[in-house]
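Two records follow; treat each independently.
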Amino acid sequence: MSAPGPVDGLGDAAVPGTGEVTATVIVNAPAPRVFAAFTSWERQSEWIPFTKVRIVEGDGGEGSLIEAITGVGGAGLRDEMRVVRVDAPYEVRVVHCGNILRGPGAMRCTAMAGDRTQVVMHEWFHLPGGAAAKLAWPVIWPGSKLSLKGALKKFGRLVEQGRLP
């Protein structure tokens, strides 16, 4: 995956890692509405479990820095994402550029007949932990995919109900 846009200074984080996760959902709403809901960054907290999302820098468009903190109890994981491309209402690309989660990601909206939209999220993470993480990835991957798919399904329901954006 190439990541056009403001990727300067992101180093290896802009290059796809070996931990790849993809999920797809069909949303019964037109692509511009689905795209607007997805890029309402802070509202992602409503459909990504145990996660608080906020814009740290910028207006949410290209060059913005988004922070997502996922936590249960006292444990938490901070995910920093730089928005590197916005091609509304079709695609948004980010680069996860934090200390633990690193690698590019993309969300694509494809308009379908009947005002439906196919949403595809694709992430290419660098796996922390070296060789051990690469060996563990086949065990971790199904849970990652299931979690992403579940979040996208909830996202779709909220859009269809008019609760997002």
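The next record belongs to a different protein.
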Amino acid sequence: MAQQHSNWVEARQKVVAANIAHADTPGFRGSDVAPFASLMSADAKPVGMATTHAGHMVADGSDAKIGVVARDSTGISLESEMAEISAVRREHGLNTAIVKSFHRLYLTSIRG
């Protein structure tokens, strides 16, 4: 799930950066990605585990797709896009903290 969240943050950062880059392009319509919670909802496809060794458990399901959706407004406000970049930065920090915590837990369990 942390990997899926990381992919979502990456996609969101790309979309927001494109919005900023095209802020003064006539006729450009801003977009955003679907909320991460919608990827993890019951309606979304389940996220499967990767198996890299024959002894790993097999799980059904595939990666959920990250959907890019058009925004309601036609104009792009640089102030709101900068706020979005700040939100993306917080999401990335959260993801990094979660992965770091799991890594520490894993190392603790190996060391005994």
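Discussion point: The chain has a mean pLDDT of 78. How would you locate this feature using only the token line?
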